[in-house]
Specification:
Elements: H1 2-9, E1 70-77, H2 82-89, H3 94-101, H4 106-127, E2 136-138, E3 144-146, E4 155-162, E5 165-172, E6 176-182, H5 188-195, H6 198-205, H7 209-230, E7 241-243, E8 253-256, E9 266-271, E10 277-284, E11 289-294
Parallel strand pairs: 1-11
Antiparallel strand pairs: 1-5, 2-3, 4-5, 6-10, 7-8, 9-10
């Protein structure tokens, strides 16, 4: 089985399966009351911030639990060696392998195989299947979803990668989107005028010049994370989602389609993907727990 072969060659990657438990009533530090998971949606969001540091020691197999309103973020390096690429290539579907062949540049081809193969291995760990056995469907705008279900419900996921780094967001039963961007020189003034709301573009222009580029990408990733979560993607219109732009505080959803009340259905969390990058994840409903793990593959 390809999964067993992959784990045998690279034991530090996916050394576990994921199970789902119904947690007991919440208690102790950080608890919001005594409600069970089914009642969490009726409570105010209990957390305003999370530990966004990256752990390179994922929990043991029997300790990694995914429940509703919990988000797992995985970070991976896509610059793998040839042996690793070949192992991941075997896990892809014939359609994915054919798609990989269409890339003109070798590094794009390798990054696609790495990103898709790692995704399959991550999701396989959640549903308890071999990576090559997973089946994906696609929404009207092309957003992939997992057709394979698990004992715990529908695993929802989203992926973003930039310049050799990939982020994977996984949750249970809620729409989710993630976006990662490398901070780089661009014409952010004209892009903001074109794709941002007038208020956002004006706010960005009023910032000190040395802060504008990073602020632009922080807003962009937040907007795209939300649009990816809804399945609309960029076709949904970046200008339809208004984000707060403040270098001293995390981006927040201000209104969606001109309606500020729609933002109450969503959680937006800025991430810390590493130097030179910015990222955000958007989830429908509250986020009660968020964990960030760094994937490593042994040579």
């Amino acid at each position: 089985m390809v999964k067993a072969t992959f784990q045998k060659k690279f034991p530090s990657l996916f050394p576990y399966q994921v199970g789902w438990n119904r947690r007991e009533p919440l208690s102790g530090d950080g608890a919001a009351g005594t409600s069970t998971v089914d009642e969490l949606m009726d409570l105010a969001y209990p957390y305003s911030s999370f530990d966004l540091s990256w752990s390179d020691s994922p929990p043991a197999r029997d300790e990694l639990i995914l429940v509703p309103h919990e988000v797992h973020i995985w970070r991976a390096n896509l610059d793998l060696n040839q042996e690793q690429i070949e192992v991941l290539l075997e896990t892809l579907s014939p359609q994915e392998q054919e798609r990989a062949k269409r890339f003109h540049f070798t590094h794009d081809w390798r990054h696609f195989i790495a990103a898709r193969g790692i995704l399959r291995n991550i999701l396989a760990s959640y549903v308890g299947m071999a990576p090559e056995k997973l089946h994906f469907g696609y929404g009207d705008r092309g957003k992939p979803y997992l057709e394979t279900t698990s004992a715990g419900g529908m695993v929802q996921f989203n992926v973003s990668h930039s310049q050799g780094t990939a982020l994977y967001a996984v949750t249970l039963g809620s729409n989710i989107g993630i976006d990662l961007e490398a901070i780089r020189p661009i014409d952010h003034h004209n892009l903001a005028k074109r794709f941002f709301s007038p208020t956002e573009a004006a706010t960005l222009a009023q910032l000190p010049p040395e802060l504008q580029q990073t602020a632009f990408f922080r807003a962009w990733t937040s907007k795209e994370a939300y649009l990816k979560a809804t399945g609309e993607g960029l076709a949904g219109g970046l200008g339809s989602v208004e984000i707060s732009i403040n270098p001293d505080s995390p981006p927040q959803l201000l209104n969606i389609g001109g309606n500020p009340y729609l933002t109450e259905r969503w959680s937006l969390q800025e991430l810390n993907p590493g130097p030179g990058f910015t990222a955000a994840v958007a989830v429908e409903g509250p986020i009660w727990s968020l964990n960030c793990w760094q994937l490593t593959i042994d040579n």
